[in-house]
Amino acid sequence: QVQLVESGGGLVQAGGSLRLSCAASGRTFSGYDMGWFRQAPGDERKNVAAISWSDGAAYYADSVKGRFTISRDNTKNTVNLQMDSLKAEDTGVYYCAIRYGSNFDVWGQGTQVTVSS
């Protein structure tokens, strides 16, 4: 079984940047799609970005397009989320996940991102 550990969260002012990293150990994530999700207080967990294994194609939620960039390094078993021009509404717990089946089914413990306005 793979374990995912997120890092890089913190407190940042609006307009600032953060880079989240997710490290996988155990079972490799090569060959599988990866995603980043955000759960804001009182809200459901939502997919903000994902990256395909097969062609590296990236998906972004409309709310983060042009501001967030997802990338993966299969040699290091890491997936990153570069977040620029952060807004207060980006606040939440960020989780990385792997899609082994039809859905994202293995999750990290999450890292808190707080954007002050």
Give a brief rundown of this model.
The chain is mainly β and 117 residues long.
- Supply the helix-strand structural class: mainly beta
Radius of gyration using CA atoms only? 13 Å
Q: Please write the string of helix (H) and strand (E) elements.
A: EEEEEEEEEEE
- How many individual β-strands? 11
Low-confidence stretches: none
Task: Explain what this protein looks like in three dimensions.
The protein is mainly β. It contains no helices and eleven strands. The chain has strands spanning 3-7, 10-13, 18-25, 33-39, 45-51, 58-60, 68-73, 78-83, 92-99, 106-107, 111-116. Strands 2, 4, 5, 6, 9, 10 and 11 form a seven-stranded mixed beta sheet that branches. A four-stranded antiparallel beta sheet has the order 1-3-8-7, with no helix packed on it. A hairpin with a 6-residue loop joins strand 9 (92-99) and strand 10 (106-107). The protein is globular, with a radius of gyration of 13 Å.
